[in-house]
Amino acid sequence: MIKKKLLFKLVLLLVSSHCFTQPYGGTIFVDPDIIMASDSSALETVTYIGQANRTIFDRRLNNWTTVNAFLFEVAWNDGLSTEAVVNPEFGTLELAAVEAEKYGWHIGQLPYCLRFDVDEIWINKGVELFGGGNHSILIHTGQTVLYENDDILEETLVHEASHTSLDATHAASAGWLAAQNLDGGFISDYAEEFPDREDIAESFLMWMAVRYRKDKISTVNFNLITQAIPNRLAYFDEISCKLFPFEEENITALNRLDEAADNLILFPNPTTGLVQLELNDESDFQVIVYNSIGNIVQKSHLKTGQEIDLSGCPSGIYVLVFGKNDRLMTRRVLKL
Fold first, then answer.
1. Which among 184, 208, 207, 187 is positioned nearest to 198, based on CA atoms?
2. Where are the domains of the chain?
3. Please, which pLDDT band fits residue 332 given cuts at 50, 70 and 90?
4. pTM for this predicted structure
């Protein structure tokens, strides 16, 4: 009889432990296709505005530090903008511009409501985790390589931007706390470990997946998410969250003629090879073409009406940096 009771208690313990196991370790790893590198971005222009001191966080130091940063105004085509603060360790203005454009593009792929409170993008070297909060997103470019290898850079940025733009309003709200209580468990071990700090960021990405990318995630994942956090999903359904350009992929920045600073226009874009430059300045500009990993593909000096030849380059996205004296502009071109 004693043995049966002990066995019954052991079974109850095992069942109880199983019931409280969360579906995932961390949600950025669930599916790499929630946002894809080829998806639309709201990025409009990246404009160099000078070099000045900014206080940023650096995980390599595990502390705040003040740097004489390269500064860029990043403008998105839905009215939002931010300042890219690029650590001077990148060495040159041109290399700093490539970093500002890259993250301006990828953060521009996030919904409007996740960019709303992003006042600064801090860009450092080093293999350290990204961060969100403090009205900023923290980038360490060595870590970017690891995220890109796993194809989860965009999903990671959703997580960090959720900290920046959603936590302050929602993490301690009565509605969110009620949803947590009604769901009983968490979507991930990471959310369970830090319920006050990580639950919003871990859950919002999954809401985006089941509400807007059901066709890209597996049925198994769809069922796991909807069964684990139904009340959290319902909470996100009710808050006001503008989703452009994530929800409106038919508007693609790469497919429009960009009439931004200095009326710099590149066409056709996308291109199979030749790209023509149109600029309301008759003098020549230095043009440096970078590939997606920051290597220089070609350098030249061009005037309006002349062409950039990418015909010998592999398919992919290229960043073109146009410089003249202290003026600097960047554009992105898709080579088919």
1. 187
2. 21-253, 257-335
3. confident
4. 0.77
